Amino acid sequence: MVIWSDPAKADLRSIHDFIAHDSQHYAKKVTQDIVAKTNTLGELPRVGRVVPELSNEAIRELSLYSYRILYEIKEHGVFVLAVIHKRRDLQPEMLER
């Protein structure tokens, strides 16, 4: 089961709103593609790579367009923690929001 945290949902809304300033169509497409990319995590949770900055086997990431989809594998599911732009430095507190 894949569960989106409230901060990750807020990240997705922010991405949508930012892109929507130029194109509603692409804002919808990008956000739908990001969600679709996470749909397989319930069955294949280790498909993403370990986040290099954290070196924690349970916290992994998928890459799509210019975004990093950060998630954590737990006993009772996969939790999407954040969606950040690849150019942003990852701060550990981003995952604790």
Low-confidence stretches: none
Query: Any idea what the shape is?
Result: globular
Largest sheet: 5 strands, mixed
Structural class: alpha+beta
What string gives the helices and strands in order? Answer: EHHEEEE
What's the β-strand tally? 5
Radius of gyration: 13 Å
Instruction: Tell me what the CATH architecture is.
Output: 2-Layer Sandwich
CATH topology: YaeB-like fold
Terminal CA distance reads: 21 Å
Average predicted confidence as pLDDT: 93
Count of discrete structural domains: 1
Care to describe what's here?
- This protein starts with a strand and ends in a 12-residue tail after the last strand.
- Helix 1 (6-20) runs antiparallel to helix 2.
- It has a single domain, classed as YaeB-like fold.
- The protein has helices spanning 6-20, 24-38; strands at residues 2-4, 49-50, 59-64, 67-74, 77-85.
- Strands 1-5-4-3-2 form a five-stranded mixed sheet.
- The chain has two helices and five strands; from the N terminus they run E-H-H-E-E-E-E.
- The protein is 31% helix and 29% strand.
- With 97 residues, the chain is α+β, with helices and mostly antiparallel strands.
- The model has no long low-confidence stretch (mean pLDDT 93).
Task: Summarize it.
This protein is an alpha+beta fold.
Task: Give the helices and strands, then pairings.
Blueprint lengths: L1 E3 L1 H15 L3 H15 L10 E2 L8 E6 L2 E8 L2 E9 L12
Parallel strand pairs: 1-5
Antiparallel strand pairs: 2-3, 3-4, 4-5
Helix pairs in contact: 1-2
